[in-house]
Amino acid sequence: MIKKVILWTSIVVLIIVNLLIDINVNNYISILNQCFNKNIVITNYYYALICAITAFISVLFILAIKLVVFYKKEEIKGIKLKTEDRNISVQQIG
């Protein structure tokens, strides 16, 4: 249950971040225009390409989160020694 909550929460957050980035592309371009004293014009093709690339990166993040959350195996806590092994080691020492 917790795994599904983590996955869906991350999907919603990444969709919101992706929308915010897509909305603010023109603001980023205007900042670049001011920084470099150039007149950069973004056509609809380049705007769609930028949005598609950010969406693809978001999908890769979702896949990485899914792989980490759902396919994580338990870590080895330690080696459990049998009682015979403990007795042998104590006899050898002392």
Indicate the structural class. mainly alpha
Radius of gyration: 26 Å
Number of DSSP helical runs: 4
Mean pLDDT: 82
The proportion of strand residues reads: under 5%
Attribute tags:
94 residues, mainly alpha, 4 helices
Describe the structure.
The chain is mainly α. It has one domain (2-70). 77% of the residues lie in helices and 0% in strands. It is built from 4 helices and no strands. It has helices at 2-23, 25-36, 44-70, 83-93. Helix 1 runs antiparallel to helix 3 (44-70). The longest helix is centred in the middle third of the chain and has 27 residues, at 44-70. The radius of gyration is 26 Å and the shape is elongated. The two termini are 52 Å apart. The mean pLDDT is 82.
Write the layout of secondary structure elements.
Blueprint: H1 2-23, H2 25-36, H3 44-70, H4 83-93
Helix pairs in contact: 1-3
